[in-house]
Specification:
Rossmann fold; alpha+beta; two-stranded parallel ribbon; 5 helices
Amino acid sequence: MLFGNEKNAAANITLAKSSLMAAANGGTLFIDGIEETSGSVQLRLLHLLDRGESNIRLIAGTTSDLQALVLAGRFLDDLLYRINAVTLRVPPLRERSEEIPRLAEHFLRTLRLPGTP
């Protein structure tokens, strides 16, 4: 669970020791597909980030245009503002096919069983 199941009365937010947020305390939490989170999860995440109740570094991954989702009313503008400190765009491999041979060599070398040529 991202937030756990114990109520924090002051913030009306759910947070428990067994939550991913609590486990990431003092470290990094990666949320892949943040565009798929429900409005209520987005709101709870925004409250946690705004109140500084969790000492985490948040990294969010998406394949969607979050600004377009904000305009469509499917993503919170305030949450996008809070998480959009640094944007790193990694083009799909089809747009950088010159890297395929080097990646293939790396994976073959890495996955080679001991004793095989």
